[in-house]
Design a protein that fits this description.
With 279 residues, the protein is α/β, with parallel strands linked by helices. Helix content is 35%, strand content 22%. The chain contains ten helices and 14 strands. α1 (30-41) packs parallel to α10. It starts with 11 loop residues before the first strand and ends in a 7-residue tail after the last helix.
Length: 279
């Protein structure tokens, strides 16, 4: 890749990270990295779009790329333009609503995480916190009484996350959807259930950054694999699902790539931008 300028069909590329750009071992392939760099160098607006917190996304990008990218973090609750410290768009859960969510999850016996000020606080057990810290690259502070901490600090968190085995997450989602007014609830992994401010999702955030940067949503490609990406698939012109994606994404996709363990993101980008293909 390199040499003459690319002939571009799309103006922007919205890229999920986990389960999409990286494989199950959290590795980004050299070809995928090079393809993203080439797109950016040729004027494509590249936006990393994840359920991860901003700090985790920024650290991940700094390890793999020599340039900053625009970032949609927390499933759309925050948007940072490339290289800027503060988000131009940010949404939070009201304090009372966040307590309602925490106590609902505590009653259900779910492990829960509470995000504010780019920090993560969690309930026991520590094993879930350690697993998440390894995945995200951000330390998690385990609290014996997470709800008491929330009541004492009275902050408005960006999101709350429940983590459990897939069957329990499915049952929890069915139990709480529609029961806690003013919140958006969806899965970002089979084992993760995210609680967000009402109306917050990747699709709305993509609309916001599209307006801010003046790129056409119809001429935007998006790569994703999970339920939280489905909102973005509804607003972009060319959604591509990974081969490992949930069925809801595959049903809405314009094209289905190989899975994330077979460089699916690289082949998705070559499909959308054929000039990336090696001669």
């Amino acid at each position: 890749m390199g040499g003459s300028a690319l002939i571009l069909k799309f103006e922007a590329a919205i890229l999920d990270i986990d389960g999409t750009l990286i494989d199950d071992g959290m590795r980004l392939s050299d070809r995928t990295r090079a393809a993203i760099q080439t797109l950016s160098e040729n004027g494509v607006t590249v936006v990393l779009c994840s359920g991860r917190m901003y700090l985790s996304m920024r650290r991940w990008a700094e390890r793999h790329f020599d340039r900053p990218f625009h970032m949609i973090s927390y499933n759309g609750a925050q948007i940072h333009l490339a290289g800027e410290k503060d988000p131009f768009y940010s949404r939070r859960l009201p304090f009372e609503k966040s307590l309602e969510i925490l106590y609902t999850l505590k009653k259900a016996g779910s492990y829960r995480q509470y995000y504010w000020d780019e920090r993560i606080f969690s309930s026991p057990p520590a094993k879930w916190a350690e697993h998440y810290a390894l995945h995200s690259g951000v330390a998690v502070s385990v609290q014996e009484d997470l709800e008491r901490l929330a009541e004492e600090t009275r902050v408005e968190p960006v999101k709350i996350l429940a983590i459990d085995i897939p069957d329990r997450i499915d049952r929890l989602q069915k139990a709480v959807v529609g029961q806690i007014a003013g919140t958006s609830v969806f899965k970002s992994f089979a084992t993760y259930l995210d609680f967000m401010p009402g109306g917050t999702n990747k699709g709305e955030a993509i609309r916001e950054i599209g307006l801010k940067l003046n790129f056409s949503l119809e001429k935007t490609v998006m790569l994703g694999d999970s339920e939280n990406d489905s909102f973005g698939f509804e607003v972009v012109g060319y959604p591509i699902a990974m081969g490992n994606a949930q069925s809801i994404l595959k049903e809405r996709a314009a094209w289905i790539a190989p899975d994330n363990n077979r460089e699916g993101a690289y082949w998705a980008l070559v499909h959308a931008f054929p000039d990336l293909s090696p001669e």
